[in-house]
Amino acid sequence: MAEPMMTTWTGEELTAIGGAEELGLATPRRDGTLRPYVTMWVVRTGDELYVRSARGPANGWYVRALRAGAGRIRAGGLEREVSFASAAPDVHPGIDAAYHAKYDRYGPAIVGSVVGEQAREVTVRLLPRV
């Protein structure tokens, strides 16, 4: 994933999106229209927002996100155009901890699909687009 031109998240956006139980993520079709939103978990680590593919690298939304490099999210009452970027290698322990803190009540089998070594390769950092 390329490092796109971007702005930064505002404190309000970080609080609203990072605090939302779920996030909707839509990727564009070839004609530019958006596909239906896919519901997933989102976590905040510092001033960054992350999502992970619970079903690994072959998950449809993840494949399309990598291909498109951008899309649209909605969560916490906000909608934003975003770019998708890779996560830095050193942030994964914090992302794992954020998933555990926010979602452990759903049980280890479910949370286990988005934490640990296997989840690192399918981590997407959400960046607000200009």
Structural notes for this entry:
The chain starts with 10 loop residues before the first helix and ends with a strand. With 130 residues, it is α+β, with helices and mostly antiparallel strands. The protein has five helices and seven strands; from the N terminus they run αββββαββαααβ. The protein is globular. It has helices at 11-19, 60-68, 92-103, 108-111, 117-120; strands at residues 23-26, 38-40, 43-45, 48-52, 70-75, 78-85, 123-128.
In terms of topology, how is this protein built?
Elements: H1 11-19, E1 23-26, E2 38-40, E3 43-45, E4 48-52, H2 60-68, E5 70-75, E6 78-85, H3 92-103, H4 108-111, H5 117-120, E7 123-128
Antiparallel strand pairs: 1-2, 1-5, 3-4, 4-7, 5-6, 6-7
Radius of gyration of CA atoms, rounded to a whole number: 14 Å
- Summarize the helix and strand pattern as letters: HEEEEHEEHHHE
On the 0 to 100 scale, the average pLDDT is 94
Q: How many helices does DSSP assign?
A: 5
Number of strands: 7
Terminal-residue CA separation: 17 Å
Strand share of the residues? 25-35%
Q: Main sheet?
A: 7 strands, antiparallel
Query: Shape from CA axes?
Result: globular
Structural class: alpha+beta
Low-confidence stretches: none
Write out the strand line-up for the largest beta sheet, numbering strands in chain order: 2-1-5-6-7-4-3
